[in-house]
C-alpha cells in the first residue's frame, strides 16, 4: 500500500475516532473504545480486526504470541487504544516496537480519556 493510500486511510481513522469520542465521551474503559472504534471503521468499509496476536521470532526461534494488537486496519495500520490520564512516552515506544515486530510502517496511538481527542491522537511512522 502506498503512502497516499495509507494517509487517506489515516484520515478515515481520525474521523472515526472523533466520532467515537463525540458519541461516548471520555472516562470509559479501553474495551468500550476499542469495540466502538472497530465498529465505526467497519461502517467506513475498512477491514478491521481486533485483538490480533503477533508472534515473536528471536535469533531464528519462534517464541510464540508475545503481544496482541488492539486494532489492525486493512492489514497495514496498527491502532493502540488507551483510556488513561495522559500519553506516557513508553506508550509511544511500545507502539514503535509493535510496528518493528509486525513489519508494519504506520500506527496510531489513540487516548480517548481526553476532553479533546486531538490531545490524545498520535501518528507513529516506522521506516516509511
Can you describe what's shown?
Helix content is 39%, strand content 32%. The chain is an alpha+beta fold. Strands 1-2-3-4-5 form a five-stranded mixed sheet, with helices on both faces. α1 crosses α2. The longest helix is centred in the N-terminal third of the chain and has 22 residues, at 3-24. It is globular. It starts with a helix and ends with a strand. The mean pLDDT is 94.
Query: How much strand content do the residues show?
Result: 25-35%
Q: What's the helical proportion of residues?
A: 25-40%
Form type:
globular
Q: Main beta sheet: strand number and arrangement?
A: 5 strands, mixed
Radius of gyration: 14 Å
Termini gap: 11 Å
Total beta-strand segments:
5
- Annotation field: number of helices: 3
The secondary structure category is alpha+beta
Main sheet strand line-up = 1-2-3-4-5
Sequence of secondary-structure elements? HHEEEHEE
Structure summary:
This protein has helices spanning 3-24, 30-43, 89-102, and strands at residues 48-58, 61-73, 77-82, 106-111, 121-125. It starts with a helix and ends with a strand. The relative contact order is 0.18.
What keyword list fits this structure?
3 helices; single chain; alpha+beta; five-stranded mixed beta sheet; 5 strands; 128 residues
Blueprint (SSEs and pairs):
Blueprint: H1 3-24, H2 30-43, E1 48-58, E2 61-73, E3 77-82, H3 89-102, E4 106-111, E5 121-125
Parallel strand pairs: 3-4
Antiparallel strand pairs: 1-2, 2-3, 4-5
Amino acid at each position: 500500500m502506498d503512502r497516499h493510500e495509507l494517509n487517506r486511510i489515516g484520515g478515515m481513522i481520525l474521523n472515526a475516532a472523533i466520532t467515537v469520542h463525540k458519541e461516548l465521551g471520555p472516562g470509559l474503559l479501553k474495551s468500550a473504545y476499542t469495540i466502538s472504534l472497530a465498529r465505526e471503521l467497519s461502517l467506513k468499509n475498512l477491514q478491521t480486526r481486533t485483538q490480533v496476536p503477533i508472534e515473536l521470532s528471536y535469533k531464528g526461534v519462534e517464541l510464540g504470541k508475545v503481544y496482541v494488537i488492539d486494532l489492525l486496519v486493512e492489514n497495514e495500520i496498527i491502532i493502540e487504544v488507551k483510556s488513561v490520564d495522559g500519553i506516557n512516552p513508553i506508550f509511544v515506544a511500545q507502539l514503535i516496537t509493535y510496528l518493528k515486530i509486525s513489519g508494519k510502517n504506520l500506527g496510531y496511538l489513540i487516548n480517548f480519556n481526553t476532553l479533546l481527542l486531538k490531545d490524545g491522537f498520535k501518528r507513529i511512522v516506522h521506516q516509511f
